[in-house]
Amino acid sequence: MDAGFLGEYLGTTVLLMLGAGVNANATLTKSKGQGGDWTVITSAWGFAVLCGVLVAVSLGAPGHLNPAVTVGMAVAANDFSHVGPYIAAQMLGAFTGATLAWLAYLPHWAETEDKAAKLGIFSTSPAIRNAPANLVSEIIGTFALLFVVVAIGSKLVAMPGYLGPVIVGLLVWGVGLSLGGSTGYAINPARDLGPRIAHAVLPIAGKGGSDWGYAWIPVVGPIIGGIIAIIVAKAAGMI
């Protein structure tokens, strides 16, 4: 198996296992972490990104774990040869990670009555449902992610390679704390769509619908935001 594909798959698996895991821990009835606040959730997602990137990079993958990053970097390099395989790996990994989180909390699903809360463990939803505003929120959040990622990798910053995953994890934490309250900051099509598919197909006790009417926003918004970030970074001479 190609090292890039395997790394993106396993890295994204770890990302969603830990990310959906903290959502479950903070949400599900009788979990020891039930009631965990936004700081707990955003912190754990930052750690999840750090762990996922470390796994991916250790296997020879770039550690994108995110189709928006993959597409953005392809635009930056004008090389789209890895886009298809990496996105496929990320989607599969997101599904696998969400499934593992479901299994880790298996007895708790039947104890939890709130169907919307169960879906929220897997996928994002807006605080105020307004499609244009929600799309803009995802565009801005992903712009911030990609624009700073480019800065992290720039020659003038010259950051030691081993610090990259740590700084990216802190970046995702910061994006969640500052820009995440509107839509839950998917900022990653695989992070939302893979687990949403898992929610739809897994035999989750007492689940409701998977809100497919909203599902396009956390896919389209991040892709647009990532491309805009690369365009601006190129215009500014960062690439």
Description:
The chain is mostly helical and 239 residues long. It has a single domain (3-235), classed as Up-down Bundle (Glycerol uptake facilitator protein). Helices cover 66% and strands 0% of the residues. The chain has nine helices and no strands. It has helices at 3-27, 38-58, 67-77, 83-104, 115-122, 131-152, 164-179, 189-201, 217-235. Helix 6 packs across helix 9 (217-235). The two termini are 31 Å apart.
Question: Count the strands?
Answer: 0
Strand proportion, as a percent range, falls in: under 5%
Give the structural class. Answer: mainly alpha
What does the overall shape look like?
globular
- What are the secondary-structure elements, in order, as H or E? HHHHHHHHH
**On the 0-100 scale, what is the average pLDDT?**
97
Which blocks of ≥5 consecutive residues have pLDDT under 50? none
CATH C-level category: Mainly Alpha
Distance between the ends? 31 Å
Helical fraction equals 55-70%
Oligomer: single chain
Q: In this structure, how is the largest beta sheet organized?
A: none
Which CATH architecture would you pick? Answer: Up-down Bundle
CATH superfamily: Glycerol uptake facilitator protein
Our count of helices gives 9
Which properties best describe this structure?
66% helix, mainly alpha, Glycerol uptake facilitator protein, 239 residues
In a few lines, what is going on in this structure?
With 239 residues, this protein is mainly alpha-helical. The chain has 9 helices and no strands. The longest helix has 25 residues.
Give the helices and strands, then pairings.
Blueprint: H1 3-27, H2 38-58, H3 67-77, H4 83-104, H5 115-122, H6 131-152, H7 164-179, H8 189-201, H9 217-235
